[in-house]
Amino acid sequence: MRSRKFDVYAFADYSGSESANDQKKSIALSIICNENEKPQTTKCYTRKSLRYEIQSLLVKAMQNDQRVIFGFDHSYSFPEGFYEIVTGNRWKTWEQLLDLLCNGTKELPPVNDKPREWAKDTNDCICKRLNIITGGPFWGPLFKYQETNPKFFEKTTRLKEKRITEDRCPKTKPIYKIGGKGTVGLQSLYGIQHLAKLRSDLKDVGIELFCWPFDGWDFPSSGHVLVEMYPGLVNEKEKTNENDAEACSTWLYEQDKGNTLIQWFNPNLEDDKLKLARLEGWILGVL
User: Fold this and answer.
1) What's the CA gap between 39 and 249, in Å, rounded?
2) Prediction pTM value
3) At a CB cut-off of 8 Å and minimum separation 6, what does 287 contact?
4) 236-246 pLDDT per residue, tens
5) pLDDT of 170-210, one tens digit each?
6) 3-class DSSP state for residue 236?
7) Distance between CA 10 and CA 72 in Å, rounded?
8) Comparing C-alpha atoms, which of 100, 81, 203 is closest to residue 152?
9) Within 13 Å, how many C-alpha atoms sit on residue 138's CB side?
């Protein structure tokens, strides 16, 4: 009797680099199949070609009646307060955030391939809405518009610096930090857009994709599953793009093989926090 929930386990170590050449040097994709327990890791991807590779993997798996669980190492959403302040609207679904980043608003353009400029415009928008003269949450040593920490979150209680899941995993960096060692701001702004495009493209060809926990906390009984992971939780080797990717795909495989994967889909949260975390997202492996 089959006990494993999935047939293929994939994870990509992502990149916020601007040039295609730098992306190809950084992005690593690791895949494990049940018939071959050793991870197969490849590089030389851009963000766009990686998305196509993942889509091809999911389509092929569906044709072979297989399920895939996969993820990337960037934030999939924003902390509490961001969407409401930027748009002036109530945040009800993850799709609203995807639409904001991909299509923009009357006041903000879409992110596209200009995340630094978008972050600067968003800083200005947030300061205006909160009646704060200067600053804004986005900053970083490689962010020329605000290179030092403005300690913005000391000026307002309406905006949180980290998501709930990141508060429980102190090693993580906030999405608001742009550039610098270990940060995920740039790759998240790029990556969330590619998640939205992947999701839309799969829907167009009839591929079932469950985006956890945005589509619900309960473990899905069918279809492919997208999860967010933080390599720092599972990589015990030297920190390289390849090792990060392999550690995450291996962890997914071993958890499924040991019948312990499902427990990670149920973090210990009170009802109000569960509701918020469905919007903010959650790092698989954090309880």
Assistant:
1) 7
2) 0.95
3) 168, 264, 267, 268
4) 889 899 999 99
5) 999 999 999 877 789 999 999 999 999 999 999 999 999 99
6) coil
7) 9
8) 81
9) 26
